[in-house]
């Protein structure tokens, strides 16, 4: 995901409401998220669908890595040698 440009990617809700289509196009084109503020505080973030999907994919991979590390540290891993044996039996 592209980084937010603070001077361009933060808009108040009133401005966003008046130009919704413009801001949707901008998010899609720049691939940068848009922060919407309400009463001077951040309220929502709008991101492009493809950027969201890529972010979810990355999170899933990181969760898998964390699970694998936990399993290995808990003694649930198997050696490379044992994996080779298991796969050679399948052939």
CATH architecture: 3-Layer(aba) Sandwich
Determine the number of helices (DSSP H or I, runs of at least 4 residues).
Answer: 4
Rg on CA atoms, Å: 22 Å
**What class do helices, strands and sheet pairing give?**
alpha+beta
The number of E-state strands comes to 3
Summarize model confidence as the mean pLDDT.
93
Output the CATH homologous superfamily.
YefM-like domain
Encode the helix/strand succession as letters: EHHEEHH
Write out the strand line-up for the largest beta sheet, numbering strands in chain order.
1-2-3
CATH fold-level assignment? YefM-like fold
For the record, give the distance between the C-alpha atoms at the N and C termini, rounded to a whole number: 42 Å
Portion of residues in beta strands equals 15-25%
Q: How many structural units, i.e. domains?
A: 1
Helix content: 55-70%
| Poorly predicted sequence stretches spanning 5 or more consecutive residues | none
The level-1 CATH class: Alpha Beta
Tell the overall outline: elongated
Q: How would a textbook summarize the main sheet?
A: 3 strands, mixed
Features:
91 residues; YefM-like fold; 3 strands; 58% helix; 15% strand; elongated
Brief summary:
The protein has 91 residues and is α+β, with helices and mostly antiparallel strands.
How would you describe what is shown here?
It is a single chain. With 91 residues, the protein is of the alpha+beta class. It has a single domain (10-76), classed as YefM-like fold, CATH 3.40.1620.10. Helices cover 58% and strands 15% of the residues. The chain is built from 4 helices and 3 strands. It has a 3-stranded mixed beta sheet. It is elongated. The model has no long low-confidence stretch (mean pLDDT 93).
């Amino acid at each position: 995901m592209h980084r937010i440009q603070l001077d361009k990617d933060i808009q108040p809700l009133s401005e966003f409401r008046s130009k919704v289509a413009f801001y949707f196009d901008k998010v899609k084109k720049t691939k940068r998220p848009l922060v919407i503020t309400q009463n001077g505080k951040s309220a929502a973030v709008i991101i492009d669908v493809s950027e969201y999907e890529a972010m979810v994919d990355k999170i899933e991979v990181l969760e898998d890595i964390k699970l694998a590390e936990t399993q290995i540290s808990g003694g649930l891993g198997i050696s490379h040698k044992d994996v080779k044996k298991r796969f050679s039996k399948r052939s």
